[in-house]
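Many introductory courses stop at the sequence. We go one step further.
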Amino acid sequence: MMLLLGLLFVVLAAAMLFLAVALTVVNPLGGLIGLVLFFVIARAVWRRGRRWFASSRSPDARRHHRARVAAAAARVEAAHAEALRRLGDASD
């Protein structure tokens, strides 16, 4: 269902973009306004969709994601500490 909804948005966006470009040929100012509106609407839909998708995750998925991020941060921190230690050893 989500795939179909996403596909519908892609088709509608392509149609809007095509109409804005076609309008530019007929009336450059109208086409420019259409292109600006297209990008404003696309940006708003993109942001709202990302927020909706993030809020639709299950609590388990959120916990799993947070655990993965924390593990990656710990690995980066450990690598940074190791690099600093090696730098200290090299300077002696």
